[in-house]
Design goal:
With 165 residues, the protein is mainly alpha-helical. The chain contains five helices and one strand. The longest helix is centred in the middle third of the chain and has 37 residues.
């Protein structure tokens, strides 16, 4: 995986975690199950703001104040910094996995051990982004979180309608 693709993975994961956590913040208070995640794309860190137009659009839709936007941006900036070292480690793990699969003899035990390491790394990143998402959700009011939840439900319905089947 290239540096750009790895970086984009973490940015996309962050955007998905934010959207889901904000939606969950609203639905948990209503004792309802929260929605699932969604995939982001390579433009998530475009110059348009936190995660490009996506996060700005979400914050615009809930009339977030400049203070709320600054706080949320700081929360995710800190999370990105915390996870920066994992990007290099993740690239090395992916390179090792590629080498194992292209070796003359396939070592199933080594592949499994590496898979376990990769899963552990993903779990650490997921936990960190989940905490950042919780912190971001706490910046918004209950009414704003309810609005985010509605936006996410509509987005999920649109995505589900596009699925074949």
């Amino acid at each position: 995986m290239t540096t750009t693709r790895t970086s984009n993975f973490f940015h996309a994961a962050a955007a998905a975690a934010v959207s889901v956590a904000l939606a969950l913040g609203a639905t948990v208070t209503q004792a309802q199950p929260g929605p699932g995640g969604h995939r982001g794309g390579p433009g998530m860190m475009a110059p348009g703001g936190l995660f490009g137009g996506h996060m700005d659009h979400l914050l615009d839709a809930v009339n977030a104040t400049d203070s709320q936007r600054s706080q949320i941006e700081a929360i995710f900036k800190a999370a990105r910094q915390d996870l920066a070292s994992q990007r290099d480690a993740g690239m090395k793990l992916h390179q090792q996995m590629a080498a194992l699969y292209t070796a003359a003899n396939i070592d199933a035990a080594a592949i499994e051990a590496l898979r376990v390491q990769m899963s552990a790394q993903h779990e650490v990143a997921s936990k960190r982004m989940s905490q950042a998402s919780i912190d971001a959700a706490r910046v918004l009011t209950p009414e704003q979180r309810a609005k985010v939840s509605e936006i996410m439900k509509k987005r999920q319905a649109r995505m589900a309608a596009r699925q074949p089947g």
